[in-house]
Design a protein that fits this description.
mainly beta
């Protein structure tokens, strides 16, 4: 490989990193892999494969996942998604188990109501951690609102019953999933845990 690309230890066919995280009964995995390199055009082809599994007792059921492959310019920090919009980028630090504290570039992407935050290793330009924030708006009443509505109804002797039935609330629900680097063959980023 040419000296111009020596700062990218991941620039070889088959370079990969696996990420894992859990959210309640759900387990998520993602694998980012270099599948082709075109040095004459200064680009590499990356494949991202993700899976979501739901655990129930001893059963594991696949509930989602996708695979996408795209070319990106060598040295560019991008996530593979058709809908994601880059909202911001800044310098930061992140602690990665078995690697310690690493200087990084933090990118924040939006995709509808959802947000993805990616921590890129500043030295190697490779993702170290993903934080996925899922949001959805729930129409109608929610449990806490129903409880207070019932209590108010009792306290007023049913005088407000018809008005309270008409009231509906919108609730923004938010859940976060952190995908941690668990395994890689990239020199300088190897993690030792299993």
């Amino acid at each position: 490989m040419s000296e111009a690309y020596s700062q990218y230890p991941w620039l070889f066919n088959g370079a990969y990193a696996k990420y894992e995280g859990t959210l309640g009964k759900f387990e998520a995995t993602a694998k980012v892999e270099v599948v082709d390199i075109d040095l004459s055009n200064r680009r590499a082809k990356f494949r991202v494969k993700s899976n979501v599994i739901r655990r129930a007792w001893r059963l594991r059921t696949k509930v989602g996942g996708k695979e996408i492959a795209e070319w990106a310019r060598i040295g560019e920090r991008v996530i593979l998604s058709e809908e994601a919009i880059l909202d911001g980028e800044y310098d930061g630090v992140v602690r990665v188990e078995d690697l310690g504290v690493r200087r990084c570039i933090v990118q924040q992407y939006s995709e509808g109501l959802n947000t993805t935050v990616v921590f890129w290793d500043k030295e190697f330009n490779w993702p170290l951690k993903y934080v996925l924030i899922f949001r959805h708006i729930r129409e109608g009443s929610d449990e806490i609102f129903d409880y207070f509505r019932d209590m108010l109804d009792l306290a007023t002797g049913g005088l407000l019953k018809d008005e309270l039935k008409k009231s509906k609330s919108k609730t923004l629900r938010e859940r976060s999933l952190i995908l941690y680097l668990k395994e890689t063959n990239i020199p300088g980023l190897e993690v030792t845990r299993k």
